[in-house]
Amino acid sequence: METALRVGILGGSGYTGVELLRILATHPQAEVAAVTSRKAAGQPVADMFPSLRGWVDLDFADPDPGYLAEQCDVVFCGVPHGVAMHQVPALLERGVRVVDLSADFRIADRTTYERWYNETHAAPEWLERAVYGLPEVNAEPIRGARLVANPGCYPTAVQLAFLPLLEAGAVDPEGLVADAKSGASGAGREAKTHLLLAEAADSMSAYGVAGHRHLPEIEQGMTRAAAGPVEVTFVPHLAPMIRGIHADCYSRLQDPEMDVQGLFEERFKNSPFVDVMPSGSHPATRTVRGSNLCRLAVHQPKGGKQLVVLSVIDNLVKGAAGQAVQNMNLMAGLPEATGLNVPPMLP
Ligand SMILES: NC(=O)C1=CN([C@@H]2O[C@H](COP(=O)(O)OP(=O)(O)OC[C@H]3O[C@@H](n4cnc5c(N)ncnc54)[C@H](OP(=O)(O)O)[C@@H]3O)[C@@H](O)[C@H]2O)C=CC1
Ligand SMILES: CC(=O)N[C@@H](CCC(=O)OP(=O)(O)O)C(=O)O
Q1: pTM of the full predicted structure?
Q2: Is the CB of 238 under 6 A from ligand 2?
Q3: What's the CATH fold of domain 153-315?
Q4: Which of these, 169, 160, 157, 181, lies nearest to 227 by C-alpha position?
């Protein structure tokens, strides 16, 4: 067997970090060599995450890029946006390849990034060199990338639902609506009042309706797919569940007679993690939990022009850690699904 890839996780004590550790624990070609946390440096990983007892025998280390570069061939960044951009250049300059799960390198246009994220970009020279890590679109450039910007969770679910339609010019690109619900783990592991059990359970609320930071990321990908301007209304919601994203994606067909089901089946026939369900299906988030799958279902109510595509993912897997490992596999020349072929957990 070839030597395993030595993998590091910058920000390993958060939700995407523990999900990366879970997935990598059974990956046949990767070995986790370093995991960082400022607060837990020096403590065994399995003390913080007893679920990994017997699987991960490492202590958390300080987030020092020099140390990570010594130990690792590839580093995943599971740190908040605004943090990764300060750490990533030092890793890249030392020859480490990086998959950044934060938003720092997703938006190629610096001005757009700075407007939506309200801060000056610390590594603008890497913005254009980063490859947007949606494997269903960019598999080839991802293979050769030094820096992959892993997509956001909502943008993954929404783009996969719209891309076939936009690439084929099948819908009005200016009348797109994405109504999406996310589980609370999408907001990370830091304490926040709106995520307390008594605030988030048994309730559902929209947020960011006037403009969520995922909107420019969604529009960037969809503009590329449509090869022209798109107009998207994006309404995210916090739903009373732990994992999962359910996106209802609305558009107007140019030709209601078009075989939309056939279009989706053809577009994703070589995508191991996109399941185009029979037309009229109702996918549930629980049918993808713990897996790297995106399940899509096409609906054409009354056979008219209005089209509804339902898209479900696990925000921590296809929306974050699983997609990041899919990208690492491509970068390493491995089959895309290596270490990711597990069925979802249900119930
Ligand atoms: N949760 C989700 O569903 C998704 C998250 N993402 C993105 O992935 C990234 C990680 O998210 P998530 O795991 O949920 O976040 P968490 O808040 O759960 O974890 C953040 C991690 O980053 C570390 N960290 C925080 N600040 C710093 C810093 N200044 N320097 C070094 N390390 C730091 C924390 O550890 P410590 O404080 O101990 O150092 C912790 O390990 C974020 O950018 C997020 O937006 C992307 C897609 C989906
Ligand atoms: C429920 C919730 O709060 N979700 C987060 C998005 C989660 C996420 O993954 O954001 P990035 O991928 O851009 O890091 C939010 O709305 O900001």
Answers
A1: 0.98
A2: yes
A3: Dihydrodipicolinate Reductase; domain 2 (3.30.360)
A4: 169
